[in-house]
Amino acid sequence: MPELPEVEVVRAGLAPAVVGARVSAIDVLDERALTRHPRGSADFVARLEGRAITAAARRGKFLWLPLDGDADALVAHLGMSGQLLLRSPDAPAERHERIRLHIEHPQHGRLAVVFADQRTFGSLAVDVLLSAPDGAAGGRGTAKALVPSQVAHIARDALDPAFDEAGFVVAVRRRASGIKRILLDQTLVSGIGNIYADESLWAARIHPETEGRSLSTRALRRLLHEVRLVLEKALAEGGTSFDAQYVNVNGQTGYFAHSLNAYGRTGQPCPRCGEPIARVAFMNRSSHLCPVCQRRR
């Protein structure tokens, strides 16, 4: 599933082309791409057609395009394999294309924004905007303290200037759950999935099953420091691509996979100590760790 770096790369790629553009028409080719818009395709088109896009914003793994009037926004969640692609207005249909937005930009002219999704777990929706409870900007890419109702329960991410680090530390130290499970809780800190949890815990030398309540404030601040470094490096390298399912708006893959130290490196030597990286079962998925550097204490 695309995590913070991948969604942020998509947001940053969309912004120059869509901010200031007006939606001229919408082609809904598959209503499965509107599972988050319960009123169906006719309502989706009616609420979006003719509207101007005023920003491109993100919180955690959610992306949204606020619409004129500040009352609602086009919300996108990429799910497992969703893609938002910029194409010429008459470009042929993409493989697994579900929805196509035709837009007109005052500088760039006519463009198409294509939502393609192989596994159909992603979705678009037009959703109402709510006031952010802390009064800070709703997410990356917007200065307004507004957030879609479908995103309101999602915590800020560790790169957000308004992220409450002290509150995060206090919350973690009250939990008996393993620290990796805590990092994946999007209501506590957003944007981190399996890949970046494994990488951050490897960097901080913490075993993923270490209970949150057993970690010191110092250890948790060190972990947050490593989380930020990992996310920033992944952003600089365009995200992580293991296959063609994650691409940026131009269809290009990221190359952070070449910088991974733990995730997906089962049996390969730990870059720090040389011990083979181990893969262990975790929540119907896997964790990757160094059994020497990340001993469970």
The low-confidence parts are none
CATH class division of the largest domain:
Alpha Beta
CA-CA gap between termini: 30 Å
Shape assignment: globular
Instruction: Compute the number of structural domains.
Output: 2
User: Helix/strand/pairing class, anyone?
Assistant: alpha+beta
Please tally the helical runs, counting DSSP H or I stretches of 4 or more residues.
Answer: 6
C-alpha-based Rg, rounded:
20 Å
CATH topology annotation of the largest domain: N-terminal domain of MutM-like DNA repair proteins
The main sheet orders its strands as 2-3-4-8-9
Question: What is the strand and helix layout of this fold?
Answer:
Elements (H helix, E strand, L loop, with lengths): L3 H15 L3 E7 L11 H9 L8 E3 L2 E5 L5 E6 L4 E6 L9 E9 L3 E9 L5 E9 L14 E3 L16 H8 L6 H5 L10 H11 L12 H20 L41 E5 L2 E5 L8
Antiparallel strand pairs: 1-6, 2-3, 3-4, 4-8, 5-7, 6-7, 8-9, 10-11
What does this molecule look like?
The chain is α+β, with helices and mostly antiparallel strands and 297 residues long. It folds into 2 domains: 4-148, MutM-like, N-terminal (N-terminal domain of MutM-like DNA repair proteins, Alpha-Beta Barrel); 165-289, Helicase, Ruva Protein, domain 3 (Orthogonal Bundle). The chain has helices spanning 4-18, 40-48, 165-172, 179-183, 194-204, 217-236; strands at residues 22-28, 57-59, 62-66, 72-77, 82-87, 97-105, 109-117, 123-131, 146-148, 278-282, 285-289. A hairpin with a 5-residue loop joins strand 3 and strand 4 (72-77). It is globular and about 60 Å long. The chain starts with a helix and ends in an 8-residue tail after the last strand. 44% of the residues are buried.
